[in-house]
Structure formats: structure tokens, C-alpha cells
Amino acid sequence: MKRKLSLLLVVTLLCTLFVTPVSAAEAASYTGDQAVVTATSGSNYFSKITPKLNSLNGSSAMATLSSGSCSGNERSITSVSVNCRVSSGSSRYTLYVISPDGTTLSKSCGTSSATYTFTGFNGEDPKGDWIIIIISDGVVTTVTATLKVNYNYSY
Fold first, then answer.
1. What's the pLDDT tens digit per position in 26-56?
2. What is the spatial distance between Cα 123 and Cα 15, in angstroms, rounded to a whole number?
3. SS3 of residue 2 by DSSP
4. Secondary structure, 3-state, 119-150
5. Are 83 and 145 in contact (CB under 8 A)?
6. Is residue 14 classed as helix, strand or coil in its secondary structure?
7. How far is CA 3 from CA 8, 9, 16, 132, in A?
8. What SS3 state is found at 17?
9. Alpha-carbon span 141 to 57, nearest angstrom
10. Radius of gyration over every alpha carbon of the chain, rounded to an integer in angstroms
11. What is the phi/psi pair of residue 16, to 5°?
């Protein structure tokens, strides 16, 4: 039994080694003797976490988050959310999110952890640097934010 399983494993590995994978972007159809590459599209997201942001007496605390590489040549944001984990004893604060295109949106936030959704970025390209800013409405606010950007793409 062990020999049969070992033989099956070896055959499977050899087959895997000699099969060349083809991504969806490389899939082609043929018209006559010419290959026509079909357009590929899909959806993806990226998520980034800020370090702890500390705002004292109305001062601003800021973090810049890079999207890294994004799928596709043509990209379009479908939704943006920011999950804010607020430290106990924090004051109310205002959250600002700035997209790579320079669009700035804000939300007034409370003293407990919550997720805030922004729709004003829809249609923009997600690739580039995102800026998260908090400004305390009281004495002190400490927040760690997780930015999540969902987008559609095509080649």
C-alpha cells in the first residue's frame, strides 16, 4: 500500500512539474492563424495598518500608507473602509482619509472602536499613497487604524 501511494505521489509531482501554468491574462483565442488575447477583469483589495496615532489637544497625527502593487492596468475603487481601534480614555476625534488622487473625506468619530465606510472615493485609482489623519476633539486620542480599499481592475 505504501509503495502504491509513493508511486502515485511521484507521478503527481512529475505531472505538476511538466505542466506550464497559464494565467487568465495569457489565455488566447485563435482567429485564423493569429492569437487574440482576451481582456481580463476582476476585483481585489489591499489592507494596511497605521502605527498608533496620538493626537493631543487638537493637534493632528498622521500616517502615510502605500497601496503597494495593484492588479490590472485600469483600476477603479468600489469601497473604502477604515477600522479604528480606539484606546480607552480617548476623546472624540475627526478622522480624515486622503486618497492618492488628493480627495479628502472626513468623519466625526466617537470614543469607542468602530469601522467607517467612505463612498466618495469610488471610481478613483487606488494605487499610490493614502494618508490617514486624526485630530482630537478633546484632550487626547489614541487610534490604530486599518485601511481597506476594494477595487475592480481590468487589463
1. 444 555 566 555 668 999 999 999 999 999 9
2. 43
3. helix
4. CCCCCCCCCCEEEEEEEECCCEEEEEEEEEEE
5. yes
6. helix
7. 8, 10, 20, 59
8. helix
9. 9
10. 23
11. -65, -40
